[in-house]
Records
---
Amino acid sequence: MKKILFLFSFISLIAACSSSEDSNDSPTTSYDKTALLTNWADNIIIPSFENYQTKVNALSASIATFNGTPSEANLATLRTSWLEAYKAFQYVSMYTIGKAEEITFKESANTYPANATQIEANISSGNYNLSQNLQFDRQGFPGLDYLINGLATTDSGITAFYTTDALASNRKTYLTAVITRLKSQADAIVNDWRSTYRNTFISNNGNSVSSSLNKMTNNFVKNLEKDIRSGKLGIPAGLFSNGTKYPEKTEAYYKNDVSRELLTVAIKAEQDFFNGKHFNNSTTGESLKSYLDYLNAVRSGQKLSDIINNQFTATYTSINSLNTSLSQQITSDNAKVIATYNVLQQNVVYIKLDMMQALNISIDYVDGDGD
Amino acid sequence: MVLSLIRFASYGWIEKFYIAPQFHFTYYGFEWVKPFGIYTYLLFILCGLSALGIALGYKYKTSALLFFLSFTYIEFMDKTTYLNHYYFISIVSLILIFLPANASFSIDAYKNEEKAFQKIPSWTIDVLKLLLGIVYFYAGLAKINSDWLFKAMPLKIWLPNNSDLPIIGPFLNQNWVHYTFSWTGMIYDLSIPFLLLYKRTRIFAFVLVVVFHILTKILFPIGVFPYVMIISSLIFFDSNFHKKCLVFITDKLNVSKNIFENGKTKFQDFGKLSSLKMAFVFSFLAVQILFPFRYLGYNNELFWTEEGFRFSWRVMLMEKAGYTQFIVVDSKTKKQTHVNNSRFLTPFQEKQMAFQPDFILEYAHFLHDYYQRIGLSDPEVYVESYVALNGRLSKRYIDPKINLAKENESFRQKTWILPFNDEIKGF
């Protein structure tokens, strides 16, 4: 019995010591995942989709005006609303969950490069169904990019395709078909979140692979690694093709001077989501950052959330050294693009490895890179 | 054990781990151990039947031998699924082949009274006690390291993830709880074999065993291991206790216990064959005692390079995860390809591969062979690899300039692992 007493006194001694030494203020409540999911849904995801819906509606109106009067002035307005909606898309691209996942929203809205040949084939035949998967690269924002920026080198040349060209009427119909699909998808997603999905999303507050936290966190990582790092930088810069560069695979290739801006917006959307920043105002709520901080995730003497935010800052700095047209930058000085890729890649490692390890969440998506 | 195998099968794990993957991570020197496609199921059935045979004492020697062979074969098919407790089961079953565990309350003894003995030499029980003692004691020794004791790592990472649990949950995010668990775990592992050995503390020790393992079962996803250990520790109880249990079972089965109560004692036979067996068992035990210290032969940080990590009772000791991107380069054209790991590996294999150097190397060789087959000339294999260990920020793990296809597996120190640049003091 002496032994046991000794053992117990030893244990309680250690307990007493370590509790007095480390009497920091770690909270005694468990992390409130419902609050986290509520912040995501009410202050970030739904407002972002509503904003996107508004911008798509404006784009739809611009297209209707342009189709009514295909003038150069109306073309300019159309381009402006296209860019606004495209930027709003960068803020919702990572939320492929629920309805958005079901209706292949991301693939329909932003598969690039656009397939110009097949778009022309669709226009001339007038026989197409944009909801088929093989039509992904013939619609969405890249498809519109081709239709309003890529048909000719001058604005008058482009408007001519909608006025005097033999297929002008078919082409206008195609513009309408593309925007109709964008709009119906945006409407479906917003309606679903507003009616039932919000509650489904928030009440799925467990730890399983199919829980909202798990799926959304995976979406966040996947969007950064696959859609931003590989899609917007790595693939066009030739990092996955033995250095063979593909400047024509940059986002918004035909517009040509907005690809850097779209990249910045997409990364900003990621960072805002990470920090739980409410859409369109500076308030922040429960987030991956606050969860990491709750778990006391400190690495090399620094909060992991700070390490990740610092790396985001470094990424913006690196992006700002690039040409506003990434395709031109790739052609003129690709080393700078690769340097930016590497800065971003470091954050992919921090997030996919260090953050996921701290949160004890497994990666559930498959690698899409490679041959 | 039968239950464990059924569990394994019912989860579809046979398919998932041994049949579905295109590629298996093998043990150095045991590369020939491979699954046999759909017939792997037969191996599992054999393993299950022989486990049943041991439990019932039916054709005991054959059952024990078959169980050892089939179980160990299963274990060696893919080291992705390596677990210390599988290894424990393997070595116990190896020893069981040499022990007269069918002497009483068994079908063998029931059918053939010559095989029935009420008493057996005490060394046969002591061997099992020693094996179990080694597991605990070495697991405790391994916990005497600076990360475990002074940083409460990796419990500091693991415990907060359970903060949803009722009652204890909220405490699991508290610093003092992490330290208490770490120190208690270390002291528990080191002292439990002795507490179990000593008659007066035995009951108390067993209560501790049950509490400890139930707790680990709740907190960590570690399968049947807690139950295996709880049942195994019953070996420390004296024969009266076991007899009562067995009599209870045989009564239920309407089998007279008198056959087994023959008062006969099995004496140690000192003939040539028996001496040889004894010599084998004891030298095996000596190896068991020394083998876990083989890491001393390597200069690198054990947790970082894992040279000498497995088969050493280093249980639940570290939180390690990795990120790997393999790049295959045609040595003539210099054309390079980024490898999509999920084409060749299951998610579980990829996860385990990402932080264990021998896995990375074996996979690199597999990639070399695969890309050579599809037409690349003498492919070079490089890896961009990062590893995060016990709450340290992730760092580059493998030298990205090293062509892994040119490096070979051996027991020699691996020079292509980048230095850890930190120190974890202790065992």
---
Amino acid sequence: MRSIRGRLIFIFLLLGASIAALIPRNVTQRTQDPQTGRMRDTSVRQVPINLGLDLQGGIHLALEVDQSKGAVADCADAIQRAQRVVRTRVDEFGTTEPVVQIVGQCRLVVELAGEKDPARAVSIVQRTAFLEFRITDMKNQFRDALPGIDRALRVAGVKAPSGAQVSAVTQLFGADTSKKGADTTKKKSATPAPDTAESNAPGALSALLFQGGLPGEFLVPDEQVARAESLLARPEVTAAIPRGFDLKWGTESESRQARLYRPLYVVEDKPIITGEELTKAAAKRDQLNNHSVVVFDLTRRGSRKFCDETGRHVHDYMAIILDNRVQGQPPIINDQICGTGQIDLQNKALTEAQDLALVLRAGALPAPLQIVEERTIGPSLGADSIHDGIKAGIVGVALVILIMVGYYRLSGALAVASLTLYLLLTLAGLSVFGFTLTLPGLAGLVLSVGIAVDANVLIFERIREELQHGKTVRLAVDEGFTHAMSAIIDSNVSTALTAFILYLVGTGPVQGFAITLIIGIIASMITAIFVVRTFYMIWLRRRPDMQTLSV
Amino acid sequence: MIRLFANANYDFIKWRRYAYGLTALIIIPGLVLLAVKGLNYSIEFTGGTFIQIETRQPVQTAELRADLDAAGIPGAEIQSFGSDTSYSIRARLGAHATTPGGGTEETVAAVGRALDQKLGHDNYRIEKREAVGPKVGKELQGKALLAIFFSFFVTLAYLAYRFEWRFGLAAVLATFHDILTTIAFIRYTNLEVSLVVVGAVLTMVGYSLNDTIIIFDRVRENLRKFRRTNLYEILNLSINETLPRSILTHGTTMAATLALVIFGGEVIRPFALVMTFAIFTGTFSSIYIAAPVLLLIEKRWPGQDARGARAYAPREPMVTPVPAPAPSGGSGSSRSKAAV
């Protein structure tokens, strides 16, 4: 009695968990705005199962370092630089979660779900990396121009979102700023709070910008980035940006007070030096103070130039910009730098220094990439595949139900009931472990429904045999389950083993097939053995004196 | 209550020589054809370009072919893909089907230009485009072979662990037979061998082995149960006892694969066809290859009780338990076919 209750609770927990794992939820999708052509994040409700590129459409690229114009000595390092560069460009792709992965030693795999134009994707990936160092807006000229920009926007009819702060630039992190100010002993501009009295309405742009920790740094809440971007692209704004300055976004959002902010930097429009002048960059740990540092070397021409520029900009901040994105927080120039420089990352992890060194090297030695494999699947083809797969699945499952119920009657119906749980479990397994459902995977799912009932068939046949030998119903059921067990385990293990090898050796779609098969096997063992057994137990308890069994 | 082949008592093993002949009839011409013509590998393995387009109006393949020839991609294969507005274009590396530049990217671009010229840029849509360089193709070939060998090896190890080596060897030979017949089948039907088809072959290996294991499991059990019966009888008995299960499981699996063949779409059809064939060959080999081969092995290298060695001894009446009348009453008895 208690064991039946325990089993039922377990089954319902399993059922509940599977359904919970499959409830549609909001997923952010990055789509291209048809008017502005910019990327926009939108929220869509969908069942949380990763679909492979062959089902949702998209582009798969495999790239290697192009050695046709001269051998590259260390292709592993070159491909790492390439990966770093492609990562900074992910925003340009039309996809929320692009895969930029090194496979094996020297191959980069880029997967862009939903992207339609292979030519565009290829050109983004293959574009040569460009690294530059630029000084930030040390005199806060942009900030001082903000009220003017807001006015221009108001004239153009752009209103600030309701409920925005009145102040032109909110000093969100006041304490933080003053501390940083103390660090930079001789800060060039004593930043007075801007006069906010004259702007009686919140500014359209300034409401989105929060002053960051250093001059020329602003922070934009993540959800406002798209809006800020579109405002900054307006002609009224570009005309009003102080002469000699550009705006560049940072690469990664940072979290402050439980909110994510994307940094925006105002930098001089002329670089003090570009990646061409760099020769080497390496991360290391400073023995004296245990700081993470990046050491870089410059060419002879570069060091002359850098010597001049850093001499003029001591105690200014220098943004490191790779492909128009500011990498990390701009370091301060402490002294004139000639020949060899060192960027001190203070107490940050060594991995961050290694990443920065990689950025510098990527700019210094752009790795030319060659496409060794390309697959593009149009979105309508993917939709067709899903449609066909579901149709085949429904027909297949219907036939299996027909056979099982027709042949085994009530017992068959129990097996079919457990089959429902089986399907839910398999899909939930894919969702929970984050595996990807591919087209062959969909076929594997349909196929596995046919195979999944095998365990039930083995058990039912065994029960029939035992009944035939004159055993009582209760005994026949018990013996049927025990005797069928070794055959079930043997056969499932052999299938799982081949599927596992397929997973190890196969590529994306085939791996999807192997995964579906493996999860399906595990799920079918649970449902066929445990769930159907429980059903029998309940049935036998209800009718303990049962003489015949519908099997 | 429906009961299929319940209490069947066919002498399967008796027909083994005919079965050998039948399977040789399938395998040998298939392998000869394979040696002569090779397999129809997909561009994943050969390297090359595959483009699937959807046109607004039906197009003649001959016209498309002429245009591609003119564009400098001679020998590209053009096939209708499901409907007369859907076409696939294949240009394999190594064959003559690439542009003089030889690169896959150039081929893609050249095909694009030819199509733009022929159909107009807005009158067709690229549904799928694959370009695989020669290096990746070679790697995939290697990986596919590795997968087949590996799976063979691992299943062998598993069988060695679960069964005595005589059983394991018989099962492996049966599986090997299945791989040969499947390759012959792929050759006869000229199916394109892609990674997915290799996946189907591997799944077939698992499925067929599974079937053999079910029968051998019963053989092992019956060997323990009927101490005095010879192996010939035990094998027949075990096959007959597991027959209803085989019919049912193959029936449901077949329902699933046929649904995939008919409704699953062009991309999955080769996979589904191979799996459908696998059900036949797997069932056949479990009964007619695995069991007789086990008999041969036991005869040659007898096991402990040397029942295999007595396998060809005059048959004694079968010592099977007399079934009690089935409780539900409907047991269709085929006892009349009992051993002679």
---
Amino acid sequence: MSGGIHHWTARETRQAIRTKAASATEVVQALLARIARLDGRDAAGGGLGAYLHVDPDRVLTRAAALDAEHGTATDRPLFGVPVAVKDNLCTRDVPTTAASRILERFVPPYTATAVERLEAAGAIVLGKTNCDEFAMGSSTENSAFGVTRNPWALDRIPGGSSGGSAVAVAAGLAPVSLGSDTGGSIRQPGALCGVVGFKPTYGRVSRYGLLAFGSSLDQIGPFARTVQDAADIFASMAGHDVADATTAHAAVPDVSALGAGASSTPLTGRRIGVPRALLGSGVDAAVQAAIDAALTVLEGLGATLVDVELPHAAAAIPVYYLVATAEASSNLARYDGVRYSSRSKLAPGDDLATLYERTRGEHFGAEVKRRIMLGTYVLSAGYYEAYYQKAQRVRTLIRRDYDTAFAADVDAIAMPTCPTPAFRLGERADDPLQMYLADVFTVSANLTGLPAISVPCGFSPDRLPIGLQLTGRPFDEAGLLGLAHAYEQATPWHRETPPLG
Amino acid sequence: MSALSDRDVLRIAELSRLALTPDERARLGRELTAILTYVEQIGGIDTSGIEPTSHVQLDDTTLRPDETRPSLSREAALRNAPDAIRGAGLFRVPKVIG
């Protein structure tokens, strides 16, 4: 174990509690103290702002209950492990806002399956994390409740939309966390904050209790400081759920010992596809250099690099923003001022339509309105075929590109997670299209449903983290995590910590 | 893509059930025009004979037995309502039929 409690991985935390080197109460006390010191938005120089909601009494009560069970429940895979949860996942009796004014006072009457399963495995929910409103954004700047800062450079964005969950793990405010990924919202902030971000296969993790954004794209996944920790969280929450008809029946793989029996060339026989044409343009020089170096490391571990073509990759962003906004416009229709939390003031005689329009107009932020408008337009009569249905057809072509690549016996496809390191707060806030282009490498995994992971692979000259993205075969999370683990263990990047003290 | 007019924006806002200020409408008109112009590049891709993907089905689904299961109580379902007649188990909204 290295350094203080806040540096411990989930595995180290669990081991310390199991062996009574520390109690669950001591662990959460240390993290709560660090959150109080570093996270508050009123802290000197502006705190990190990873969390929207932390209830120390609730956390301490839960930790004490686990400590009281020591010896009888210690075998649970996440016994005593604190986890931060993105605020678009429902937590019973704990506020869940999706960083939106329209859910400002929403307190769910039930808990999301993913969170419930982690708690059943012994995890402690430490708090709810900031994000772009309804997970719509790539910088967490679209939160209605304030910015979240990148711990590596406080004037920079942490990525998004799950920025708070990425920062919590990067800054030692939780060993692991949950995010949701609709177009890169776990992998992109993971890359920009220097932590592991993992999106499992579509259908692998139940979305029951996840506030829906793009239902054919959304998937829940972990942030962690090691691939093994990400695998442990994944394994504890994956698998079929009667409450989510889109969850798969496929058996959840055993990923509990990723490095077992590893030699110095653990990737011998593995083939990694590299879409060279895609990497040519628009990629920052430092990112390009880090990816080239990562590919050399993978080769050194025994893997064979194979050129692959993804001819429709350039269409991924337009297709994604048509499909995702169409689905969002429908999903967000439920926020109507009747059932959940916020309602605008009405004048006598105002009708129900006015109630809907005013509540939504006054409580949704600019990006959410933009996407609802775009989605409504592309689904409307006269435009549906040219925009929405055309996008769905091109989505089929994008899927075929990946099918073809994997049919050529490739185990995974490697590329950068993001074209650039973290940009400055405010830099792209006035240019929505420019913001969308940051998702060029991440949206395809959502359009195809494939599992994908971002692992730290280096730094820019000004010490900003860079991520390597690996995309795997459907439901082959074990193969993908094994590959990512082998790369991680051969490189020093995951041991670096941001300059926070 | 010809620029969206204020009338177009108003119509989309009405379909979206969003009350927008004149400033918001002007801004959204510009932004949506720029985004739509950008996404129109996919119009040049040949998709003849290609089926649309609405949903990626990677695994077999099975139907669950059609049995009653416990669900939220009325009291729990009403707890977050901004206006409700809790004793009667009802959400309250403005008069709908004149």
---
Amino acid sequence: MNKNEESLSGQVWNLAELLARVDNDQELLRDLLTIFKEDFPLTMRSLELAVAAEDFKNSARLGHTLKGMLSSLGGQRTAAAAARLEVMASAGETASLKGALDALKHEAARLQPELDAYMSEVRH
Amino acid sequence: MKILIADDEAVSRRLLEKTLERSGYDVTAVENGKRALEELGKLDGPRLALLDWVMPEVDGPGVCRAVRTRSQQAYVYMVLLTSKGTKEETVLGLESGADDYLTKPFNVEELRARLRVGERILLLEDRLVEARENMRFRATHDPLTSLLNRGAILDLVARELHRSHREQKSTAILLGDIDHFKRVNDTYGHVVGDEVLVEAANRLLGAVRSYDFVGRYGGEEFLVVLNSCDPHFAPGRAEEIRKSISNRVIQTAKGSLTLTMSLGLLLSSEWGPRSVEELLHQVDNALYEAKAAGRNCIRIAKPATMVEPAPAVLPQSVRLRR
């Protein structure tokens, strides 16, 4: 576990919280996960470009968008990583920003298989 | 009830949309602040709005500020959605004109409860507006005939005279008095007298254009203001108004009655810039002369220097006075 991971709290994916938020509506849940599967890679790609270009304004904005998207889906740790990136970008901290992006990618890589597994499970 | 959701992030937007539809709201969802302002600016647009703080084009607080600067619009209850959590940001959001804020990710029950608060506020606002409009109507209208009352019609006369002088047009002022009205009251009672007044008011309203004004000036006296009235047509218009009273019997609780009205007529273009009081005095004199001439006719108030046109151009019941 690296330093970034240690300071992030919460579950990788809090399914119970999400189910409560959608009133146990499985169809809506699938709908949200489908939107996520489409939007998340695009937003991440834009974020990577913004961070590489040291575009702090867009990095902060995209970090904020990801934070909202992930927290709505119950991806607590990944949302926390996005929140930290947003803070770094707003503060204009180049070195920390790249570290925050790595941490976000790391958390996203842990979250996505859980979402995929759930999607595959409910599909059958 | 209509509600607007403005959020650039598709997952949150879809979640909110579905949650609110399930709660019975008629949802419009948009992805930026500019579109939110368009929706909220529509005549029959939503009056409840959930606005994300960070959005492209115009952010949530920007939408709140823009909505609050619109004065001619029904109140919109706006809730800011924010993942920002500091007290300073909360204050900033509320100062921008938001009514409330919710922290994302939202709790469904809290969201519904806060929107119910919004609905209660809007209901109270509607009742207040309705009460204010009722009070305004009562303050400016005659309770019996629902015509403009004396104060309101005099204000309008002043305004229209000023406007017609500025635009170099003519306003026609007619002062009409129901003939032998006292006899109606004495013979049939005040209930029938009131019926007669209401019917006369309706006939006067029916005889003028939608942008003219009719007011109850006194007991059985009515003031009619014809805007932008060509002086050549004014006597004919006055004659139509007189006939609207006399050409049909009035059905009352005590049977049918024949009614007539005497009228004084004044054209502002013939008098130049004079005070409202003076012009009303002149039209009142013309009315008095119509009464003296046998009633059920019109007399036109003319300044002493005016030359009388050929009598043939005026209806028989219309004559000039000086």
